[in-house]
Write a structure and sequence with these properties.
The protein is an alpha/beta fold. Helices cover about 40% and strands about 20% of the residues. Strands 1, 2, 3, 4, 5, 6, 7, 8 and 9 form a nine-stranded mixed beta sheet that branches.
Length: about 240
């Protein structure tokens, strides 16, 4: 298990890189979140369906949530992107009992280190296709059960071509789930049920194009259709 080694300077530079990258490849990032507790440890659990998901959560945190962010990563992914420890990532080797124990203890420690500390976990443990039935891991629930003041926040993320040449990224936050007085099994069931329901809700909102109350977090470059529409308006106004 390798701990995070956060660097404010690197994080600032990486945030600029992420924004540039997302603007190049996506039309918009849209977000809707409920009111969250102003302080206290938060564990965000999200679906993991694209290679881009880590970039989406970085942008979400930098531009919207502004938490003291930590991310649990599988060791094989962490080794591919060792710089990620500078933005709050730490590794876990699920095949080693001692490593899992160390990662869980580290998670508890960082969550209790600041009133704005948060931990992001993809409970599926790997990228799975949209609409699949992933086998969720219970790590987030076991960590949360050790911090009774913690809150679980489910987050649904979906990238879809909606109206433009480039896909939109739509992020829907769920209602916070307090864990006080609950055991790991109850936290696991409540958290994963909420995440599954949230994904279904988001899919329906996108299909019906009911996105007016979502905030535009980031806008990308204009598509060919946008430029054509602008050209038509210019011509018609002459």
């Amino acid at each position: 298990m390798t701990e995070a080694q956060k660097s404010p300077l690197f994080n600032s530079l990486f945030s600029l890189y992420v924004s540039h990258l997302l603007r190049r490849h996506f039309n918009r990032i849209l977000v809707r979140f409920p009111s969250l507790p102003l302080s206290g440890p938060r564990i965000y659990i999200a679906n993991h369906n694209t290679w881009w998901d880590g970039f989406f959560l970085c942008a979400l945190n930098d531009l919207y949530l502004r938490d003291e962010l930590y991310v649990m990563m599988r060791e094989e992914q962490f080794l591919k992107f060792p710089f990620s420890r500078k933005i709050g990532a730490f590794s876990i080797n699920a095949g080693s009992i001692s490593d899992v124990k160390a990662a869980f203890e580290y998670s508890v420690r960082v969550l209790q280190s600041s009133s704005r500390a948060s931990l992001w976990i993809f409970p599926s443990g790997k990228i799975t296709p949209y609409g699949s039935d992933p086998a969720y891991k219970d790590g987030f629930a076991r960590i949360a059960s050790s911090i009774q003041e913690a809150t679980i926040v489910p987050v649904a993320i979906r990238a879809e071509y909606i109206d433009g040449q480039y896909p939109d990224v739509v992020i829907l936050g769920g209602s916070p789930i307090p864990v006080a007085g609950k055991g790991a099994s109850a936290i696991f069931k409540e958290g994963t049920d909420a995440l599954d329901h949230l994904q279904s809700t988001l899919e329906g909102l996108i299909q019906r194009k009911e996105l007016a109350d979502f905030k535009i977090l980031l806008s990308g470059k204009s598509s060919a259709s946008d430029r054509y529409s602008k050209f038509k308006r210019m011509v018609s106004n002459r």
